[in-house]
């Protein structure tokens, strides 16, 4: 099998695959939960100064994407090492 290119538009191929993976996971996540995300934005901007409870809820919603992204990036790395970077 041929070696992968050294860079794609100046970006390392592994980094490019990671970025594509993030987009592939993030876009459906936002599409599935867009109503809830917009409700959080309305909740945070309704009173002008959000309470600590509202901020905690918004942070939990924002950080809930981190575990699926981390798992997806790890799987992409394993697949890259297995099939591309031989």
| SSE order, one letter for each helix or strand | HHHH
Strand residue content? under 5%
Q: Helicity level, as a percent range?
A: over 70%
Number of strands: 0
**How many domains is the backbone divided into?**
1
Based on Cα principal axes, name the global outline: elongated
End-to-end distance: 8 Å
**Structural class by sheet pairing and helices:** mainly alpha
Q: Helix segment count? A: 4
Determine the oligomeric state from the structure.
Answer: single chain
CA-based gyration radius: 18 Å
Mean pLDDT across residues: 84
Biggest sheet features: none
> What are the segments in which pLDDT stays under 50 over at least 5 consecutive residues?
none
Transmembrane segments: 16-37, 57-80
Keywords: Membrane, Transmembrane, Transmembrane helix
Characterization of this structure:
- The protein has 86 residues and is mostly helical.
- It has one domain.
- It has helices spanning 13-32, 34-46, 52-63, 66-84.
- Helix 2 (34-46) packs antiparallel against helix 3.
- The protein is elongated, with a radius of gyration of 18 Å.
- Keywords: Membrane, Transmembrane, Transmembrane helix.
- The chain crosses the membrane at residues 16-37, 57-80.
């Amino acid at each position: 099998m041929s070696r992968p290119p050294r860079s794609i538009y100046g970006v390392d191929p592994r980094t490019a695959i990671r970025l594509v993976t993030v987009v592939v996971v993030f876009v459906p996540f936002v599409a599935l939960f867009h109503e809830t995300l917009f409700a959080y934005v309305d909740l945070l901007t309704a009173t002008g100064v959000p309470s600590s409870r509202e901020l905690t809820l918004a942070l939990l919603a924002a950080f809930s994407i981190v575990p699926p992204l981390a798992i997806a990036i790890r799987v992409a790395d394993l697949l890259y090492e297995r099939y591309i970077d031989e």
